[in-house]
Amino acid sequence: MMTVCDSEDLRPGQRKLVFVDGRSIVLFNIEGTLHAIDNACPHNGASLASGQLDGCMLRCPAHGLRFDVRTGCMPGPSGLRVATFNVHAVDGKLAIDID
Ligand code: FES
């Protein structure tokens, strides 16, 4: 588990880009639930950090593929998947599970 920021830095409706263990990861607070995904679109590597959110669906700014930040999956039975990470709030800090 790697500490990435203070819990206060990620309020509901906010997102945050962090760099941890050589990776770029985007954290989201969607209505109080925390999510974290790799900041690299599995289609062609574009940064997802500025993608438009619709509920839990994040749209890649490059070519518009959509990923569910809860699972990393595209809608439908198949498709690409972006890596997701577990986020924990511990003692006022946020930490991410990195393998
Ligand atoms: S790089 Fe994300 S949709 Fe193409």
TrEMBL record:
Alphabetized SUPFAM superfamilies for the sequence: ISP domain
Keyword Iron-sulfur: yes
GO molecular function: 2 iron, 2 sulfur cluster binding; metal ion binding
Xref: InterPro entries: Rieske_2Fe-2S, Rieske_2Fe-2S_sf
Pfam families (alphabetical): Rieske
Keywords per UniProt: 2Fe-2S, Iron, Iron-sulfur, Metal-binding
Record domain Rieske: where: 2-96
Cofactor(s) this protein requires: [2Fe-2S] cluster
Stated family: Belongs to the bacterial ring-hydroxylating dioxygenase ferredoxin component family.
Name by which UniProt lists this protein: Rieske (2Fe-2S) domain-containing protein
Originating organism: Caballeronia fortuita
Taxonomic placement: Bacteria, Pseudomonadati, Pseudomonadota, Betaproteobacteria, Burkholderiales
